[in-house]
Design goal:
It is built from twelve helices and 14 strands. The chain is globular and about 55 Å long. The protein has 396 residues and is an alpha/beta fold. The strands form four sheets. The protein has a seven-stranded parallel sheet with strand order 3-2-1-4-5-8-12, with helices on both faces. Strands 9-11-13 form a three-stranded mixed sheet. A two-stranded antiparallel ribbon has the order 6-7. The structure holds nicotinamide-adenine-dinucleotide and sulfoquinovose-uridine-C1,5'-diphosphate. The site of nicotinamide-adenine-dinucleotide has 27 residues, from helix 2, helix 6, strand 5 and strand 9.
């Protein structure tokens, strides 16, 4: 199949492009390097060094013999977006290309506006391009479990049957996101659902949980094929951060009480889920939602797991929660649709944690301990250390 991967220079887009290419699909990769510019802006970098996209693509050709058509540009540019869809003629488009860090979106007004414009406008341009060029293209869009928030009822997969004053309907599950980033995904979902209905598109919204891990069968084939691993207080996600913290002897930073519970998955399962969605496309006019995670953990539970499994000394520190979120809550979310399509999950095990400790130990000299503390406060209108940084967000 011909598949265009948007955001293919990022943490998940790059290994997904390799995974699909390795399985014989014809893959095109698209990125505007926004993620690399956030690093410059924040003075942070991936723990594992990453090659330039050109070097990555050249190395993949040498290692596998497969070509990746490369397009450099911004989805917020409608002509670029239309051109890539016209030129590559994809049958499926996997859309990872958004600003994805909740703390980045909460730095100040400029970063909130940047995040929402980048994400919502990019996706809207893409919907128009698909509708104009070929409405048969299947859009596989990365959403987030954070669209739902933490309601005091079970979370369904996208839709819930509601009975109200004697009448029944199946309606989108209520959304209660916890950052301007997570809100951008809700706005995307609404736009995708509406565009799918009016133009009879095919779309799958993958409400993904928090991803952990770094190595995939393809990225380990050469150091220049490695994907990034973030641990800083803005882009680092919770388990990846705890592993880095354990290895360098930094206390594990549990925010608040640590009862925040989230769906999580191994990076290798991201690739498998995306492939399953592509190989089992939505029908024309169908907007479907899959909850893409394999297990749920509380933040405190993750910290205890790391403390138990890491061979060195580990301390856990409950730091004041920089976010506005429930620190203890009910959490039970459905996630059967990808399992029904055949997903065989990699569950979080001691073996996996050991291999992750190995990755971090090999690169621990790159850790900047100053980057670990959370610097963005949800309650502040502007976080002093980072507000006014203008590289990536300077366009707004
Ligand atoms: P990432 O930031 O590493 O990758 C995103 C890529 O998209 C970057 O390379 C960036 O340069 C590119 N990009 C951003 N805006 C663009 C634009 N306007 N035009 C072209 N390229 C653009 O993020 P990631 O961790 O790989 O996440 C990928 C997707 O998966 C995101 O949409 C994110 O919201 C979603 N997701 C990620 C996680 C996670 O734990 N990492 C969990 C759930 C959902
Ligand atoms: N947390 C800590 N300590 C830390 C870091 C985080 O306790 O050092 C807590 C946070 O307060 C939060 C939880 O861990 O309660 C998750 O935070 P996170 O930064 O790991 O994840 P989040 O901000 O939700 O965002 C990440 C990705 C985002 C994706 C989302 C999936 O960056 O792109 O959409 O996970 S989900 O969480 O399901 O919405």
């Amino acid at each position: 199949m011909k598949i265009l991967v948007l955001g293919a220079d990022g943490y998940l887009g790059w290994p997904t492009a390799l995974h699909l290419s390795a399985r014989g699909h014809t893959v095109g990769v698209v990125d505007n390097f926004a993620r690399r510019s956030y690093d410059h802006e924040l003075g942070a970098s991936s723990l594992v060094p990453i090659a330039t996209l050109k070097k990555r693509v050249d190395t993949w050709r040498e290692v596998s013999g497969f070509e990746l058509a490369t397009y450099i540009g911004d989805l917020c540019d409608p002509e670029f977006t239309r051109r890539i869809v016209t030129d590559f003629e994809p049958e499926a488009i996997v859309h990872f290309a958004e600003q994805r860090a909740a703390p980045y979106s909460m730095i100040d007004r400029r970063h909130a506006v940047y995040t929402q414009v980048n994400n919502v406008v990019g996706t809207l341009n893409l919907l128009y391009a698909i509708a104009e060029v070929n409405p048969d293209i299947h859009l596989v869009k990365l959403g987030t479990m954070g669209e739902y928030g933490t309601p005091n009822i079970d979370i369904e997969e996208g839709f819930i049957e509601i009975e109200h004053r004697g009448r029944k309907d199946v309606l989108p599950f209520p959304k209660q996101p916890g950052s301007f980033y997570h809100l951008s995904k809700v706005h995307d979902s609404h736009n995708i659902m509406f565009a799918t209905k009016i133009w009879q598109l095919r779309s799958t919204d993958l409400n993904q949980g928090i991803v952990y891990g770094q190595e995939t069968p393809e990225t380990v084939l050469h150091p220049d094929l490695a994907t990034r691993l973030d641990y800083d207080g803005v882009f680092g996600t919770v388990l990846n951060r705890f592993i880095v913290q354990a290895v360098i002897g930094h206390p594990l930073t549990v925010y608040g009480k640590g009862g925040q519970t989230r769906g999580m998955l191994d990076v290798r399962d991201t690739l498998a889920c995306v492939e399953l969605a592509i190989m089992n496309p939505a029908q024309r006019g169908e907007y479907r939602v899959f909850n893409q995670f394999t297990e749920s953990f509380s933040v405190a539970g993750l910290a205890e797991l790391v403390a138990k499994t890491y061979p060195g000394d580990v301390t856990i520190e409950n730091v004041a929660d920089p976010r506005v979120e429930a620190e203890e809550h009910y959490y039970r979310a459905a996630h059967t649709k990808l399992l029904d399509l055949g997903l065989n999950p990699h569950l979080l095990s001691e073996t996996l944690l050991e291999s992750l400790y190995g990755v971090v130990e090999r690169h621990h000299a790159n850790v900047d301990p100053e980057a670990i503390r959370p610097q963005v406060q949800w309650r502040s209108i502007a976080s002093p250390a980072l507000a006014g940084s203008e590289l990536a967000a300077g366009r707004q």
